[in-house]
Design a protein that fits this description.
single chain; 124 residues; mainly alpha
Length: 124
């Protein structure tokens, strides 16, 4: 990466981190925490599985999954080991669902953007 690219990359990275830290409305985080009912273990598990699933085939998703996972992570305390285990599980599930998808599989529905779900397969 060239020096101008490194500078631009650093600027983008810094702004993204700043927006993630300060740009998320506290109401969203409070709502997630309330729905989780103090189950930090479930939040960490879901965040890891969602992110891992996305990482298994990032080209099939737009990235909303990573935003959701991030919101789950910053809405409370997270056990890093549990998060890592869940991310591995999500990745494995994502890879295996791509290998042999079933038309009615919820994993397949996650892989198809919502705007394309109601279109005939031939139009996809």
């Amino acid at each position: 990466m060239s020096t101008p690219d490194q500078k631009l990359s650093a600027e983008i990275h810094g702004l993204a981190l700043l927006l993630a830290r300060d740009g998320v409305p506290q109401e969203l985080l409070d709502r997630l925490a309330k729905v989780a009912q103090g189950r930090d273990d479930l939040r960490a598990e879901l965040a890891g599985e969602i992110a891992g699933y996305w990482m298994a085939d990032p080209a099939s998703h737009q990235g909303h999954e990573l935003i959701a996972a991030g919101l789950l992570l910053i809405s409370g305390v997270v056990d890093g080991d549990q998060l890592l285990d869940a991310a591995r599980t999500g990745y494995k599930r994502g890879k295996s669902s791509r290998a042999t998808p079933h038309p009615a599989s919820p994993a397949l529905l996650l892989a198809v953007p919502r705007w394309r779900r109601n279109r005939p397969a031939s139009a996809r």
